Amino acid sequence: MKANWAETYYKRQFELMRSNSAYPANNFFEEEVSLLLEQVGRPSATVLELGAGRSDIANILARQDRKIVTIELVEEICGYAKKHAHQNVQALCGDFYTIKLQRDFDLILYLDGFGVGNDDDQSYLLQRIFNWLSDDGYALIDIYQPLYWQKIAGQEMYPFGIENIIRKYDYDEAGNRMTDTWWEKGKENETITQSLACYSPEQIYTLCEKAGLQIIAYYPSGAIDFETGAFQKIASLDECLSYRIKLKKN
Ligand SMILES: C[S@@+](CC[C@H](N)C(=O)[O-])C[C@H]1O[C@@H](n2cnc3c(N)ncnc32)[C@H](O)[C@@H]1O
């Protein structure tokens, strides 16, 4: 179930980004929401967002009168989300593996972060998503793409341009997981690492099918070009860093 590293990593990452004022600008989230609405392709009155972080996306979606529930594990991040929540957003602090929800939703989102546990944990979460989804609802989930992470293993950078923090990407071949390690310059012994399972389009199709969910679309995201350092907004399914799947009940 809940991975040991998750709370430590996301809490520390939140502190580092906050103390360096390193969050993306509002127009980044506005663009994300436009894209997401285009992918959903129809109105949804009730939305559930898993691993919602500060609820930046939820707050924008909520402006159009949707009722949104967000779930976030880390108390400090959730506290921020509650403080800044739009009136249509109910920000819940909790673990999406164990939290009890009394209703179903037209749309379920898990943006950036799927793959925290092992395959059984992922299957269990997909079953929970099946149970929370209304009969004609959609879910959108971002999946890390293994070929990209294999290719860029070993790359180091300054996350969000913060020059006192180093970020190193790697790939665990045995476990098929991307790893993302952060440390402050001069504090190489105090690293934090996230480790997320990567799935090919075929592998995730099979995992979803076992949970009664069918993938009806794949949307590749972009990729960092490490030669130029620029982020390419459009990449193929084999070259993107992650891709979004659109799911419905089988
Ligand atoms: C990579 S961040 C993405 C945040 C947000 N979705 C976004 O795109 O900005 C993943 C988030 O999922 C949360 N998370 C991880 N495991 C969780 C769990 N078991 N239950 C609820 N939230 C979890 C983390 O604390 C973190 O804030």
Fold and architecture overview:
The protein is of the alpha/beta class and 250 residues long. The chain has one domain (4-144, 199-232, 240-249): Vaccinia Virus protein VP39 (Rossmann fold, 3-Layer(aba) Sandwich), CATH 3.40.50. It is 30% helix and 32% strand. The protein has 7 helices and 13 strands. It has helices at 4-19, 26-40, 56-61, 75-83, 119-132, 146-151, 201-210, and strands at residues 46-50, 67-72, 89-93, 105-110, 133-144, 156-157, 165-172, 177-184, 192-197, 213-220, 223-225, 230-232, 242-249. The strands form 3 sheets. A 7-stranded mixed sheet has the order 3-2-1-4-5-13-10, sandwiched between helices. A 4-stranded antiparallel sheet has the order 6-7-8-9. Strand 7 (165-172) and strand 8 (177-184) form a beta hairpin. The longest helix has 16 residues, at 4-19. The radius of gyration is 17 Å and the shape is globular. The mean pLDDT is 95. The protein binds S-adenosylmethionine. S-adenosylmethionine is lined by residues 2, 6, 10, 51-53, 71-74, 77, 95-97, 111-113, 116. S-adenosylmethionine (SAM) binds next to helix 1 and strand 2. One of its GO terms (biological process) is methylation. This is Class I SAM-dependent methyltransferase.
